[in-house]
Amino acid sequence: MKDKPTILVVDDELIVRDSLSDWLAEDGYNVSTVKNGNEALKLVNEKDWDVLLVDLKMPGLSGLDVLLKVKEINPNTPVIIMTAYATVDTAVEAIKKGAYDYITKPFNPEEITLTLKKIIAHQKLVKENILLKDELKKRYYLGNIIGKSPKMLKVFELVKMVANTKSNVLITGESGTGKEVIARAIHETGNRKEQPFIAISCAALPDTLLESELFGYEKGAFTGAVNSRKGKIEIANKGTLFLDEIGEISTKTQLDLLRFLEEREFRRLGGEKLISVDVRIITATNKNLELAIKQGIFRSDLYYRLNVVNIHLPPLRERKDDIPLLAHHFLEKYTLENNKNIDGFSPEALNLLIEYNWHGNVRELENVIERATVVSKENLITPQNLPDNIRGKKPPKFAGVSSLKDMEKHYIKQILEETNWNMKVSAQKLGIARSSLYRKIKEYKIHTP
To answer: Could you tell me the mean pLDDT of each successive run of 10 residues in the chain, 449 residues long?
Structure first.
């Protein structure tokens, strides 16, 4: 049988203690009463109480004195101040010092019942959120990977299996699923964790610059090369090199990378000396590389070199069990960053997060939680803190749309304007690589305002 919520009534008047005890017992609470502040503090030190009802004016310790002491002993214990001296000043002072609410004498039993139901429900949510956070930390994470769904537990197993090997790993999945997080988990779980983890986005750099970034260059190799410089492959020696968006590299860079993978040595641009390195290669893509091979834009021999072990990250919509865990993880992160005091999510808000389709995957969820943390004025995230699209409100229709391409153009333009033409953020919101976004802008002749 579930324990009844515990209420402690603190009042110097016997009739008040008896009447409150009778009312609250009828409502299903386990009620104890004391006649002064010292007796109350003794009981607060002995056990946790769900709610304290404390009279403002008492001999000895006043209600405000008791409130302050209680907050020192257990800051999470809700205290309701009872007063026959209902002035704005006393109410504001009590709330400022940490009271949950105040009620005035003579009491309205219905008011007390509603107030206590609200507090008990909130306390239950807080406890559930704390338990969920503890569960998250104890059972459902590996490095920075979070999940308890069967598909993510399979990913956990693969990460553990490959962590201490030298085998190349190809991580596949939609944009925003957390492919770099998986790559870092492999590195940090394995025997290379004390060595460098170097990440580079292949789509973020032009082909010529990518080549020099990977392999480095000697002084005088090209105009502007006034000094020799190590490439990312060399810097990552003994550690891990993570190549994100590998499907975006040119045919020439594919050949250079293949040659390195076969020989495990390379030359800097403009150099003659062969350089040998011991580096673990992890790559990632949101593209279908097998289709790219059929289309003649990705080398099959490179693909098989990279895809020794494949780890596929499922989209968030296919692992909804993980959404509460991820949501609480991001909430904890952003409440700390923004110095906010938010305990968790209301059931309605959490249900909306679970039901939403998350086209932007984990990255979109993180952005939503960060925004909700910033705008929330309460100690729970509620539906009002979530964007309209998650709350089920339809976005405005595009005017003058006559085709799918026209709609795509309008949508891309809308996202660009919303992000003030921040290419990185826009690409993330659209779920495409930055190089693809640049091509779309050029194709549709989208110009800055």
So the answer is: 81 92 91 95 93 92 93 90 72 82 84 87 74 58 78 92 95 93 93 94 87 91 85 95 95 94 92 93 96 95 96 94 91 90 89 92 93 90 91 60 71 81 80 81 80
Give which of 60, 56, 52 is closest to 36, Cα–Cα. Answer: 60
Query: 380-381 and 240-244: which strand pairing?
Result: unpaired
> Whole-angstrom Cα distance, residue 191 to residue 238?
10
String of DSSP letters for 22-37: HHHHHTT-EEEEESSH
Give the closest residue to 385 by CA, choosing from 393, 376, 394.
376
Domain 317-385 carries which CATH code? Answer: 1.10.8.60
- Report H helices in 87-225: 88-96, 109-139, 150-162, 179-189, 207-215
> Please, what CATH class does the domain formed by 6-136 belong to?
alpha beta
- Provide the b/e sequence for 298-307 (b: ≥16 CB within 10 Å): bbeebbebbe
Of 419, 356, 411, residue with least CA distance to 388: 356
Neighbours of 152 (CB within 10 A): 22
Do the first three CATH levels of 149-314 and 404-444 match, i.e. the same topology?
Answer: no
**CB 61, CB 36: distance < 8 Å:** yes
CA 432 – CA 442 distance, rounded (Å): 15
What the block records as the tokens of 115 is 């107030």
- In whole angstroms, give the CA distance from residue 313 to residue 286: 10
CATH of domain 404-444: 1.10.10.60
Enumerate long-range contacts of 409-418, CB under 8 Å, 24 or more apart: 409/444, 409/446, 412/437, 412/440, 412/441, 412/444, 412/446, 413/444, 413/446, 416/441, 416/446, 417/449
Distances (CA, A) of 213 to 108, 203, 231, 268, 305: 73, 13, 5, 10, 21
Q: How is the beta sheet containing 101-104 ordered, strand by strand?
A: 30-34, 6-10, 51-55, 79-83, 101-104
**Domain 149-314 falls under CATH 3.40.50.300:** yes
Extents of the domains making up the chain: 6-136, 149-314, 317-385, 404-444
Alpha carbons 182 and 160: distance in angstroms, whole number: 11
| Gyration radius of the chain's alpha carbons | 30
Cα–Cα distance, 332 to 344 (Å, whole number)? 9
